[in-house]
Every structure is written in structure tokens, then in C-alpha cells.
Amino acid sequence: MDIHNCLDVVSFAEAYGMADLLELAEDFVLRRFQEISATPKFQDLPAEKLLQFLRCDALSIPSELAVFRAVVTWVEVDPTERLPQLHPDMGQRLPSKQLWFANSLRSGTGLVKEIEWRLLGEMPDQARFRHGVRVLDGQLYVAGGCHFYAKSDTMKSVYRYDPEQDHWKRLADLHELRSNFMLVVSGDGLYAVGGDKDINTNLDSVEKYSPETDSWSFCHPLDQALSGHAATVWGGEIFISGGFNCKYECLVSMFLYHPERGTTYLAEMTHDRSQHCMESLNNRFYVAGGVRNLHKYYTDQLVCEMYNPVSDIWTVFTPLPVPHVGAASAVLEERLYILGGYCQEDYSEARLTHRYDPVAQRWESMGKMPGPVTDVRACLLSLNPYQSWPNG
Fold first, then answer.
1. In whole angstroms, what is the distance from residue 157 CA to residue 178 CA?
2. Is 125 a member of any domain?
3. pLDDT tens digits, one per residue of 81-124
4. 51 is in which domain, residue-wise?
């Protein structure tokens, strides 16, 4: 029995009531599930049998991401017929349209302060995750992302939110579908860098948005396809760290990107990582969270690193107390905030917010996130203090 015929053996044993052979074949499938999911026979698996395997505690997988990719491959054979059959089991995590904001801290245990969150409203269009958000000229831009995990769920729509008017406006679409990419502000425009166009294919393209003409134009491409990377702007230049290459391996790279000249590589990080955060603070870049390579799979990356753009040197700093994969990040009052994400080891949600104080050189827990926590995005936006928000 091998990965190419084991599902036939399962069907044969079920049809003829051969309990011992069925147990042996199903055990083989559960142990080799990731390899079997890449075979043509897997795409013919009945929904009931697939759900049986997914519910089994003996299912051997590196992470739920491997399951998602297998299920997406199965669904894409006939999305109309198959996707509804999986909703009872696959719908526990749903994308959200909600926007939350925090402008104060409340007292927690002892002297600890926790973030006080309030609901700002909802985005128009479909709910999304793995999108890009940035603030330009006091207005919030939301671009791309995905609504679910099928190829047709990756998005290219773009919206702008005016906090003074509490109004959303639909803008020109991106040229390409993008999720798990970076959106940055440099000069007078926005740049959408890399990303996934579907769950198994990432991009090397870069687009620039001009607010004056409401249009996107292609810039010099990256020198390789990239997604799950992090980016920050310092001195008017775009710096990009880590991410997945076209084989979805985590990278150690750090490079400078120029819209006309392309990629210039800098000193590599000490540790590989993807789906991490990078923020500029006091002329240093702080990198935290994400996943790292572990043989053929991934595991949580708790090591944190700081980059000096003047000396081109990396330094390790205090590790995260808990995993934050696919988290959001922001800098406020000279402290780094890492918000939400999940744990790669067991795919549990990291509902906490952690704040790093460079002076004290330690992480502090700032309480729980108010709503969705995985593949969320954050930014700093000035709000109208006289505006009445949904929850008062």
C-alpha cells in the first residue's frame, strides 16, 4: 500500500466489510495525510469521508495550514457543490468587517494597564483578512486581502475611509489579486508589494497607487515571488524582511526596495521568519513574531531581532512570551505593540496584545483583543473627538 492506492484500499475494505484492512488503510491515510492530499485520488474523496479524516484525533499534520491547503485543493474541483458541504466544520473562523480603535488604557491587575477598545464601525464590501492597511494624509486605506481560502476569494478591491466625515469611498482596484502582502506609504503614494494571488501562488509584482489620479501602476518587480513578509519605511526608503519564497520556505533576507531600481540586499536576519511584524522605532527596526522553518513544516518563531539601518547589523532582543503568527503591529508613544495572531503549534488564537518597551527591554501584556485576532491589521489614525461611535 502506498500514497497513490491507499484511498482505493479504504473504499475496497468498506465495500466488503473487511474491518482489519479498513483500520490498517485508514491509519495509513491519517499518518500520511499531507502527502496523500497532493495525489489525484484525494480530489475524488467523498465529502463524508474527508470530514471523517479531518475530525480524527490521529490525523498527522504539521499545522492546520496544511489541512486548509488540502481542503482548498479538494474544494476547487467543484466549489459550488463542495464548499457548502464543509461549512459546518470549516466555518469556525470567519472573516470580519469590523473596525476597532483604542485611545485609552484602563486599570488592570495591580499597576498593569490594559487597552480599552471601542468599535469604530464596519468596512464596506465583503469581510476580509490578510489585507493591507495604511494611513495617508489622515485617511485610512484598505486594500486586497481574502474573504476565504478558495482561489476566487482573493480580493483586489480598495477603499478609503475619511474619519472626519465617517465616510467610505471605493477606489480603483489593484491590478492583481493580493493577500498576505505589504501595503506601505512612501512619498506621495501607496505601494502594494508582493503577496499571494491564491493560497499556493505568490507574486513578485509591485504596484503604486496615486491618490491624485485614483490609479495603480506597476513598478519594478521584486527579484523573487514573496508573501508573508514585513515592511517598514525609514528615511523615505522601503525595507522588507523575511517572508515566504515561491516554495513557501521562510526567508532570512532583508533588502531595500526601490520602485525604479528594484532590490538591494542587506545583512540577513539571524533567524528565518514569515508572517511576522516589523516596525521602525527610534531609528531601529524591531522584528517580532511569525513562523520559522522546521524540516518540511513550520513552527512558532519567538526570537525577536532589532536592525540598525545605519550599521546594517542585527541584534537579538527579548523573545516574545507567547507566539504571535499573522499578528498586527503598531508603534505608539515609543513602544511596539503586537496584536493578536495565532500559535502555529496548535493553531490556537493568541488573543493577547503585547507591548515592548525598548527602555525597560521587556514585553508587557496589555489585555485581550476585542474581536477577530488572526491575520488582522493595525495602523494609527487620528479620529474626530466629537464623532459619536457605535458603542458610545
1. 9
2. yes
3. 877 776 544 544 555 565 655 654 444 444 345 666 666 778 88
4. 6-90
